[in-house]
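Q: Please design a sequence for this.
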């Protein structure tokens, strides 16, 4: 009797492992959306166009930002590229929009808007920023100095 039980347990474990091993990896992509690691293109594929308006104080305008190596017409290209590098990792993009249905404080951060387009880490970027509530303000502030810092 003990041998039958041991055999049944061992067989069940082997079959369970085989079934789990055969499960397609695609089944897990809905729960864990992943993004590949950043790709550094030697020809300078990390190029962004940053358009800022409604900020004032000489901070409005359209700026080109090249990274790896840092350059372009952006006022602080090196610091902007370093900020983007720090916030880019597996499964995390610095250009992610606010989550739908997220609870945000109802505060107004001013009329400033920004639009960032181009290519970052081998992926296309088309992100819009505004300061219409607490989530959007935090999203803007997380991208400073790519976007101008506006303080509290």
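A: Design:
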């Amino acid at each position: 009797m003990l041998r039958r039980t041991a055999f049944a347990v061992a067989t069940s474990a082997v079959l369970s492992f085989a079934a789990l091993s055969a499960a397609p990896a695609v089944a897990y992509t809905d729960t864990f959306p992943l993004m590949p690691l950043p790709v550094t293109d030697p020809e300078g594929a990390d190029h962004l166009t940053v358009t800022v308006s409604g900020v004032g104080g000489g901070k409005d305008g359209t700026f080109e930002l090249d990274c790896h190596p840092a350059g372009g017409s952006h006022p602080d290209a090196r610091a902007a590229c370093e900020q983007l590098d720090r916030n880019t990792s597996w499964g995390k993009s610095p250009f992610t929009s606010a989550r739908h249905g997220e609870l945000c404080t109802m505060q107004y951060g001013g009329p400033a808007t920004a639009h960032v387009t181009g290519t970052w880490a081998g992926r296309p970027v088309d992100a819009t920023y505004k300061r219409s509530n607490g989530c959007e303000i935090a999203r803007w502030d997380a991208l400073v100095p790519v976007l101008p810092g506006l303080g509290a």
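Q: Thanks. Anything notable?
A: The beta strands are 47-53, 61-66, 113-120, 123-130. Helices lie at 2-22, 77-86, 134-142.
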